[in-house]
Amino acid sequence: MDIISTLFSLQSRKIGIVIPDVVITEKHSDTLEITEHPVESPTKKSGGASADDSGYIADHAYRRPSELVMEVGFAGGGSLLDLVNTSNVGLSIGMSPKETYEKLLDLQRKREPFDVVTGKRMYSNMLIRVLDVTTDKHTENVLMATLVLREIIITESKSITGAGKANMKEGVSTSAIQDTGVKTAKPVTNESMISRLKSAITG
After folding, report:
1. Which pTM was predicted?
2. Is 172 left (phi over 0), alpha (psi -120 to 50) or beta?
3. From CA 148, how far away is CA 25, in angstroms rounded?
4. Domain contains 179
5. Residue 128 half-sphere exposure, CB side, CA atoms within 13 Å?
């Protein structure tokens, strides 16, 4: 490989900061967990199933973390120029199979979410769940690895600070406004007390 092709070579696959030389297979898996019990119609105005802003069911079906299985290969570090063996003087392209393996192990053990770019889609917040490496007579000088990557679903929490006891003069009437969640309105009958008594007497 010459220096020009080295500088302008573009790789479309990426596992964190590691770029494989070849991707043999990519298996994408996305699962929706759905409850088995009946679900009431998810309307926002009724007391049915909880719905998100789009009106779809939110609490009876939830998305499981995406999973990706990649079978990849990494070539051993070689000479930067075709005519001259530059690896003897410390100038080589890429890492050795051992260095690449250590880099993948380090990426797994750090447990820091990273991005993965595949031919079909890009993933965020991924971790390496399984790292399988097999060495035989055909792969002695290269690294063939199977990676099982799983998404980490990250949520954000919100904390609300209430008023301190020292600032309260009349108990809860002076406490701070607190978020108690979404309330469902109930219909109110505009029937007077006299009408109710009359209905109770006449039966």
Report:
1. 0.60
2. alpha
3. 12
4. no
5. 20
Dist. CA 110–CA 141, nearest whole Å: 26
Show which of 47, 65, 83 is a domain's final residue. 65
Q: To which residue do tokens 């679903």 refer?
A: 153
Domain boundaries, position 112: 3-30+66-151
* Distance from the Cα of residue 171 to its chain's centroid: 44
DSSP-derived letter for residue 77 is: P
Within a domain: 115? yes
Tokens of 82: 């075709």
15-27: pLDDT as tens digits: 998 989 889 999 9
Distance CA 88, CA 99 (A): 17
Domain boundary among 65, 81, 115: 65
Mean pLDDT of the chain: 76
Residues 145 and 72 in one domain: yes
Is the residue at 169 inside a domain?
no
For residue range 92-116, list pLDDT tens digits in order.
Answer: 566 788 889 999 999 999 999 999 9
Inside any domain, residue 199: no
